[in-house]
Design a protein that fits this description.
Layout (H helix, E strand, L loop, with lengths): L1 E3 L13 E6 L7 H14 L3 E5 L12 E4 L28 H11 L4 E6 L1 H12 L4 E5 L15 H22 L2 E6 L6 H10 L3 E3 L7 H13 L5 E6 L30 H13 L3 E5 L11 H19 L5 E6 L2 E6 H4 L8 H8 L3
Parallel strand pairs: 2-3, 2-5, 5-6, 7-9, 7-10, 8-9
Antiparallel strand pairs: 1-4, 3-4, 11-12
Helix pairs in contact: 1-8, 4-5, 6-7
Bound molecules: 6-O-phosphono-beta-D-fructofuranose.
Length: about 350
């Protein structure tokens, strides 16, 4: 990758459309597959590709751009993280943020920008498109909570990691007759917890959408013991607020540029484990899967869909469909307005949670 600290000048302009690509928010497996798909589709069409470094940070200040050719996206399909870097910089919170972004798009001669991200990154993309910027989006978040789309880059890999962790934790829980509390990511929604818990055979899954009280968890554990199960695996999403659990409503005072508190510092899993041990007398341990859920190689499913939505985003950019993004609907790639995708969070439906409860 040819790196340049200074914005690309007009003399660098090549034939075809000059397309920028950025990745914002938390990293997720499959981001590189999406970057590769955007770049390879663009290069095959005679367009040129510019990487914007570190999400919206690269479009603010002096701008941070890098010219990308085919060798730059070679060998990255299976890599975790993002070769472009990421950040949680929010231009909407900066005074003159629009002018800054527009100015940098102009100085880099970008005629299109593909923003790959979750609700925060895509909210900025929608806002910029509404100000007239040539922006399209791509759905990414291991939380899987964007509206309209059935798929977000990184979710399948995260579920896979949780499933494998639960398989491993089962052996310790069973051997030591313990309660194992497993904290997984999920700020406002419990997609990773429910699907990872279902696939990994969790004995209880606690998610933000369906409140559970501490008393109910204690009763459930006691019932399991009475029925002869001398160990239990409880999966809890990091954003859960639980009646009866002290301090569970507290959020860390550290917040990011989008106003989200850092849930990894909240320690909901450890709090639950401590209270359960006190209340039940059962030996209890906690495992926080944390950033392992966002790290490492993407699954085949993530690679394939990241490739499909990445290529589709290039198509949207070629057609000047600003403010739009590819989504997955009924198993096929479709198109939606970015604004609709970020309008609200997609929450775990009752029927899926009820299915998980059958195995509690
Ligand atoms: O990307 C979404 C997410 O994984 C949330 O589930 C989590 O709370 C958050 O990112 C934490 O990310 P970071 O600590 O990198 O800001």
């Amino acid at each position: 990758m040819r790196s340049s600290a200074t914005p690309v000048s007009a003399t660098d302009r090549e034939s075809g459309v000059r397309i920028g690509v950025l990745t914002g928010g938390g990293d997720a497996p499959g981001l590189n597959a999406a970057i590769r798909a955007v770049a390879r589709s663009a290069l095959a069409a005679g367009d040129s590709v510019v990487g914007v470094r570190n999400g919206w940070a690269g479009l603010t200040g002096d701008g941070d751009f890098v010219e990308m050719g085919r060798p730059d996206v070679s060998g990255i399909l299976q890599l975790g993280g993002t070769i472009l870097g990421s950040s949680r910089v929010n231009p909407m919170k900066r005074e003159g943020g629009t002018a800054e972004c527009m100015g940098n798009l102009r100085s880099a001669n970008l005629e299109a920008l593909v923003a790959i991200g979750g609700d925060d990154t895509l909210s900025v993309a929608a806002w910029l498109a509404e100000q007239g910027a040539p922006v399209v989006g791509v759905p990414k978040t291991m939380d899987n909570d964007l509206s309209v789309t059935e798929y977000c880059i990184g979710f399948d890999s995260a579920v896979h990691i949780v499933t494998e962790a639960l398989d491993r934790l089962h052996t310790t829980a069973a051997s030591h007759h313990r309660v194992m509390v497993v904290e997984v990511m999920g700020r406002d929604t419990g997609w990773v917890a429910v699907l990872g818990g279902l696939a990994g055979g969790a004995d209880m899954i606690i998610i933000p959408e369906f409140p559970t009280s501490l008393d109910e968890v204690v009763e459930h554990l006691d019932r399991r013991r009475q029925q002869g199960s001398d160990f239990s695996i409880i999966v809890i999403a990091e954003g859960v607020e639980m009646e009866g659990m002290s301090g569970a409503g507290e959020r860390s005072s550290a917040t990011d540029a989008f106003g989200h508190s850092q849930l990894s510092k909240r320690g909901v899993g450890e709090r639950l484990a401590t209270m359960l041990e006190d209340r039940t007398g059962h030996e209890t341990r906690t495992t926080v899967l944390g950033y392992t859920q966002r790290g490492g190689s993407p699954t085949a499913y993530d690679r394939i869909w990241a490739t499909r939505v990445g290529a589709a985003a290039h198509q949207l950019a070629s057609g000047a469909r600003w403010g739009m993004m590819p989504v997955v609907r009924c198993g096929s790639v479709d198109t939606a307005a970015i604004r609709d995708v970020v309008a609200e969070q997609r929450r775990v439906p009752a029927d899926l949670y009820q299915l998980a409860q059958v195995f509690f």
